[in-house]
Amino acid sequence: MARRLILWDVDGTLVSCGPSGREALEAGVRAATGLDGLNHVSMGGKTDPQIFTEMLTLAGVAEAEIATLLPAALAEAERVLGGWRERIAREGRVHPGVRRLLADLGSREGVRQTLVTGNLAANAAVKVGAFGLDGYFDFAIGAYGDDHADRDLLVPLALSRARELRGETYRPEEVWVIGDTARDLGCARAAAVRCLIVGTGRDGFSAVRGMEADAVIEDLADTDRVLGILLG
After folding, report:
1. What is the largest CA-CA distance in the chain?
2. What is the DSSP letter of 136?
3. DSSP per-residue string spanning 65-102
4. What radius of gyration do the chain's Cα atoms show?
5. I need a surface site. Which of 84, 106, 127, 230 has the fewest CB within 10 A?
6. Percent of the chain clearing pLDDT 90 (strictly above)
7. For residue 25, is pLDDT > 80?
8. Across-strand partners of 116?
9. Which helix (H) or strand (E) covers residue 187, if one does?
10. Hey, CA dihedral for 75, 143, 54, 213, is it positive or negative?
């Protein structure tokens, strides 16, 4: 019996949600600051607090003021996205093979799945819940953007929660981060755990194919192949 802790990224890995995620974050910044025009910020693999900080910095907000504005911006982004579940389901999609893989892993004794994502915890739940995927994840032991702005600190937090809340301790080789960006790989390497990178993110397979992860594949459609990587 393979014993595994699978730590899933959300956007670009499990699902894509259309423009709603970005628009919710931008709405949070506008509500907190009164600013209208915002500069474009690349969001891939970043935590929501990191994205907000970059948005506010580019808008000319002083560093000392950013910390004061962040709670209101985060709360508004959470409120806005919470009302867009149907929109996310309509405009977004689940990536190839995800449903079957989640179900197969979820049926196996000794395998636990959760999220390690830059999303706020509530927003991560909305995004996977919009597609009916929420039943596969142990949300309580996951790690999220509202836990820390530094993505590299999230895997150790998830491992700590698994130990404290479930009484489970995992060796590094029993833990897999599944993501679609260099930041997913970076957070896995920072915690010395394994990483599977998929090419279903915004920039496609060409952007990740050269990454030195434990495995790099185009998508999750070949369930047997992916299971062989994760459980082998």
Report:
1. 55
2. G
3. HHHHHHHHHHHHHHHHHHT-HHHHHHH-EEPTTHHHHH
4. 17
5. 106
6. 84
7. yes
8. 143
9. helix 182-190
10. negative
